[in-house]
Amino acid sequence: MTKPNTSPDVVLDRQCEQRNEQGFLETVMSTGTYRAVIFHNRKALISEPEHSPDHNSPDYSVTYLSPTQLPRDLPAGTQTVYLGKVLPGQGHPLAAGTPLILFALPHDAGELGWVPDGSSFMGYRDVGQQLRAADAQIVIQAQAVANWHATHTFCPRCGNPMEPMKAGWMRRCVQDGSEHFPRTDPAAIVAIVGADERILLANNFQWDQKRYSTVAGFVEAGESAEAGAVREIAEEVGVRLHALHYVASQAWPFPRSLMLGYIGYTNDTVATPDLTEVRAAKWFSRAELQGAVLNGEAVISSRASIARELIEHWYGGKILEPGEQA
Q: Is the dihedral of CA 6, 8, 11, 16 positive or negative?
């Protein structure tokens, strides 16, 4: 059985209490000991490998810039957020105690000639599974809070501008003084298993027709995660779940989700795609799924996602990709 995607180990001490103190972020920046995590157009600055990467190993890494590598004047509109300080013993290349600060550049940041050679801006979906676990955790945190700032510049109560406070973890309306914090939207994601132990995977209209994955949906107001899972599965693939087993959760910053992963059990044998979100749904035995992935008939979610964790949890081990060896 594969290890669920929920190690309790964390890379950063977010210092939630300290960052609420007035002037905390400015004090950290004044020390010059921090390292900068740079985002632009919702992509992170990533160091590329010097050679053609082996896709089974973490060859890419976050580019952590020192204060001296940053331009004297960052583009107007750059959002700064204190991410936390590196904890010891988590296998991170930076020294324990190193503070990390997110610099989210505006869309119209202009010339970025100060970006180091060998680094470029990459999306998490593209490079996530090739990052070391510690870097991936930091990118997800930075992506989520950067997305929130980019979409919450005005007060939802009165429409006036909001200013960032508390080291970037709160925005306050300049007119009515109301305080607003980053949102996290819960979503249930389910690997559906039938009475014969086959798994039901779905193909979404937004995907290539060969891509199959688990079924997911947002939990609605006043609804438990389990009730949301049952409802979403019934709506999207027409299957009734009679039992759910919680496996793991994963922060997924597109745009600000917390994916709650389940194995769901059904006695139904016929799936009915809704033809609105889901184009097709297909049952796979373990041998059928591995064979379909190896011969290219099916493409499943990447190992950076909890969807893959759930599928491999059901499978009982690693599902090989084309070209990989057992």
A: positive
The Cα–Cα gap between 128 and 187 comes to: 20
Q: What is the pTM of this model?
A: 0.86
Instruction: Answer whether CATH 2.40.128 is correct for domain 12-150.
Output: no
Using alpha carbons, list the distances in angstroms from residue 75 to 26, 264, 316. 18, 48, 49
Whether omega before 255 lies within 30 degrees of 0, making that bond cis, reads yes
Q: Which helix (H) or strand (E) holds 37?
A: strand 35-40
Report the amino acid identity of residue 234: A
> What tens digit of pLDDT does each residue of 207-218 get?
999 999 999 999
Place of tokens 């899972």: 229
**Burial of residue 295 (number of CB atoms within 10 Å: 0-12, 13-18, 19+):** exposed
Domain boundaries, given as residue ranges, for the chain:
12-150, 152-183, 185-315
CATH architecture entry for 185-315:
Alpha-Beta Complex (3.90)
